[in-house]
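Reply to dn_fold:

You asked what the input looked like. This is it:
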Amino acid sequence: MRKALLGLFLALPLVGQAADWTRWRGPAQAGSSAETGLVQTFSPDGDHLLWTHDVAGRGTPVVHGDRVYVFGYRGTGEDLREVLVALDLATGAVRWERSWRDFLSDIIYDRYSIGAPAVDPATGNVYVQSSAGVLMAFSPEGAPLWEVSMMEAYGRLTFPNGRTGAPVVDGDLVIVHFITSFWGREGPARDRFHAFDKTTGQLVWSSTPGMGPKDSSFSTPVLETRDGRRILYAGTGCGHVVAVDARTGDPIWRFPMSVGGVNVSVVLDGDLLVAAHDVENLDSTDIGRMVGLDVTAATVPQADGSTPVLKGERWRLPVSGFSSSPVVGDGLVYQVTPTGELVAVELASGRRLWSTSLGPDQLHASPLLADGRVWVPLRDGSLHVVRAGREGGQVLHRVQLAGSALGAPALADGRILVLTTERLYAFGEARPITAVPVPPPPAAATGPAVTAQVLPADLRLRPGSSVPLTARLLDAQGALVGTAPATAGEVFVPPTAKVKAQMDARFEGGALVADASAAQSAGAWKITAGGLVGETKGRVVAGLPYPESFEAFALDASDAQGAFAFPPLSWIGARFKWQVREVDGSKVLAKTLDNLLFQRSTVFLGDPDERSYRVEVSIKSDGDRRNVGTAGVVNQRYLVALKGNQRVLEVSSNQERLKHSVPFTLAPGTWYRLVTEVRVGADGAATVRAKAWPRDEPEPAAWTLEVVHPDGHTHGAPGLFGFSPGNRHAVYLDDVLVAPLEESP
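and this is what came back:
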């Protein structure tokens, strides 16, 4: 095999020995393993079945030492909870389990846990991202270490398909990617990569290598060191394959492939990177293709300043992969097509060698390559073992598992682990655990520090709070030389910033500090640390109470619809979804109608840790008797909305998990007042109350709707919501109030 992939295998134990499977794609990052001597036949009812565990999932278990970690879910309807379970590799006994509820996502049809945990080989800590976008870190014994709500903190968007993907741990970083609509230059929706400090959960960098997204993507990044530089490769939701500096987040190149997202994880063999998709090609009307890219090829700078485009296509083949990723070994690449066909391709030339039809279709599940065989789960729950190699293709064994097999197999210490939508199976020989952890790579030589990478890279301040700043000191290759505290800071307005704004904060004692009276604001800073100058940015979010009538906004921008103002810069995801306009003689917040991606819009105003508060707003929708909008508020991870077309007042936290409503008509052209509160009792149950009425009428004494949610959401950022179906009619919000419950009238 070529040099880069060979280097990965040289870091593993000798062929035939066991290796931990600490990430979705295994120790070689390609769905392959060097283990040999695996069982030849097995069955789900006894033959070489070591154990099973009842948990539903659509991803891949991971293994570290004598433990298996699986990301799955239990229950249905309001009782559904995602789980992270730690199991004994030898017996399947439960070591510990953690669980959580979905919130504010668009996920339908129980499309949960389409992803995997990741284990840090150096510490044994486990990382997982929930389907609602909460990135969590746990100790090997299950103790929570930190968590970040990507939706509320970074504007992560959710989609009905529920594709979550998997974190990757690289050195001292945990890296994930997802589509966000955040603030400032990260306001436009893009598929972005985020790297967090694996110990603290602080954001180290974010990167936007691609263009406008067409789809969500859960392509897992593959990493290598090339000429001293750590590089990340992955598919994105904008239909590209991208390369990013894994230490700094700087985009290196992008390769445009398709009109939709690239969901498969790429594989790397030396200088050749292989990717596939199953939508229309950008340069032809053909559907789907596999490509071999030379990662050392020239790139072409773009006039618009976007990431340079790679001109490195060595070969292409009409073999498609929707979300099943290829595996590579011995100069061949194996791909399962959406129609259930296993195809073997020669890596060097892209020549198709053979194919075998295994079943009617395939979704998500990727094959495993080990011991001269390809192990292929299919959506119908069948698991096929196929002879690998240039003369391969013979089906050696087939078993039927319970449920749908949508996750890739994992392999550790002779045990093949397969997760379905009903249970986790472990097949193999019963023997003592001998798994050998993958040793860390040898420390590379570093040069002098030339860059200060300020942490956190994006910060959030409540009025009256502070955030200490430090810096990672990097050499010219991006390698970490050391760390240093911040010693000075000054406001910085980037010359390219479209909004010339700054935070209402000050630098003091190595930290950014917001006074108790600090106003909502956002901006950038130049920070000195270790004798070097770096940059960070951040927001002062709304404190409580927070009233907003919009009357103070100057309507100093204009478009075809007239004069408008942008909403507060510190609101997450607001700038491209809402505008302040004059309506009915007052300034109000109006839903934009120019981007179908934002026809449904959630905007967060405050801190994700906020709790025990009241949210009020006035609502109006344009429309007619056939089409009226929806609008409301987010209160502590509950969406409370007046739904025009359905003619209800509704409380939900996911349309298929928690949804309760009462009849209520949102008539077009009429202003209504909505008041909401959430109270959590000593037993953990959350009581969500809402009342709504025509604004020009007296407020009713009784609540219109009251919902009790056992084991409810205890905290969450306040927000606003609007939905203009098909972007046909605008909705409007006015007189927002977020206040602590004890200060509410």
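The domain at 3-427 is CATH 2.130.10.10 (Methylamine Dehydrogenase; Chain H).
Hope that clears it up.
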